[in-house]
């Protein structure tokens, strides 16, 4: 397929044939130091990461940094779509943790349903869902199930709308942002948890969040899921993320 209309030659042969021929060419080994340079920058960035969070403001970014720091070993993390995946990819993954997401399949549809189903079939592990508020409210009926157990933890980062649209250049610069892109809202997950018998907790700052983490991220004797709703400042999140990238630049 000539996607970019720049194709000049096409070699029709078996792949193993091609690679065996390439090996016969006795090409010189590369002498590039690219890998070492990349690793050096990676180490420098780790130091910059620490210095940034020592003086960062309370925002989605600082919340995700703390949440990821408390993930238990050998747990399963389900990432909601859009900004959740982007924030989670800013730090190195933990080898013992399995990472899953609906990213690229159905938008915000079904992130909670997927996590609930996965928790059901992997009841020997703690399953943790990180979700945005719009995504959670959109799929809240996933909790309407008689089969959910105590190995499911849901963290809803509630920034009063689809915060991803304040990060993306296009939507963030139009007058229709709040009404048509962001889905501005002032709801809480508390009554949904009450309706579906889900243990509810909330945090409005990093101090409250850190106090809740030790008891929230561990297995308990409860046979019902737990949900933690973290309220973040809607208007600070995009500015803090941009400051984060500027810090590294």
Care to describe what's here?
- The protein is of the alpha/beta class.
- It has a single domain, classed as 3-Layer(aba) Sandwich (Rossmann fold).
- It has helices at 15-24, 34-54, 60-69, 83-88, 111-121, 133-138, 164-167, 169-172, 177-182, 190-195, 206-216, 237-248, and strands at 76-79, 98-101, 127-132, 152-158, 199-203, 226-231.
- Strands 2-1-3-4-6-5 form a six-stranded parallel beta sheet, with helices on both faces.
- It starts with 14 loop residues before the first helix and ends with a helix.
Compact overview of the structure:
It contains twelve helices and six strands. It is of the alpha/beta class and 249 residues long.
Query: What is the CA-based Rg, rounded?
Result: 22 Å
- Could you state the order of secondary-structure elements as H and E? HHHEHEHEHEHHHHEHEH
Shape: globular
User: How far apart are the termini?
Assistant: 37 Å
**What's the tally of helices?**
12
What is the total domain count? 1
CATH architecture: 3-Layer(aba) Sandwich
Indicate the mean pLDDT.
89
- Counting helices, strands and paired strands, the structural category is alpha/beta
Read across the widest sheet, the strand sequence of neighbours is 2-1-3-4-6-5
Q: What percent strand?
A: 5-15%
The CATH topology name reads Rossmann fold
- Low-confidence runs (pLDDT<50, min 5 residues)? none
CATH class label: Alpha Beta
Number of strands: 6
């Amino acid at each position: 397929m000539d996607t970019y209309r720049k194709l000049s030659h096409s070699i029709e042969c078996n792949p193993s044939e091609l690679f065996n021929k390439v090996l016969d060419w006795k090409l010189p080994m590369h002498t590039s130091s690219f890998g070492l340079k990349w690793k050096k920058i990676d180490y420098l960035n780790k130091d910059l990461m620490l210095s940034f969070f020592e003086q960062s403001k309370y925002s989605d970014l600082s919340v995700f940094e703390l949440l990821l720091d408390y993930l238990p070993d050998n747990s399963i993390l389900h990432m909601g779509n859009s900004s959740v995946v982007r924030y989670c990819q800013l730090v190195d993954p933990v080898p013992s943790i399995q990472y899953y997401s609906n990213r690229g399949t159905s938008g915000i549809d079904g992130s909670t349903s997927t996590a609930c189903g996965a928790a059901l079939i992997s009841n020997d592990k703690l399953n943790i869902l990180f979700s945005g508020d719009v995504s959670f409210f959109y799929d809240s009926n996933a909790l309407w199930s008689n089969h959910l157990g105590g190995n499911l933890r849901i963290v809803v980062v509630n920034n009063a709308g689809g915060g991803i649209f304040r990060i993306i250049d296009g939507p963030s610069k139009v007058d229709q942002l709040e009404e048509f892109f962001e889905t501005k809202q002032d709801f809480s997950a508390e009554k949904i948890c009450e309706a579906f018998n889900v243990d509810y907790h909330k945090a409005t700052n990093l101090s409250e969040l850190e106090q809740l983490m030790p008891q929230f991220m561990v297995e308990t004797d409860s046979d019902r899921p737990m949900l933690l709703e973290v309220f973040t400042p809607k208007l600070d999140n995009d500015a803090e993320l941009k400051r984060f990238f500027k810090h590294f630049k």
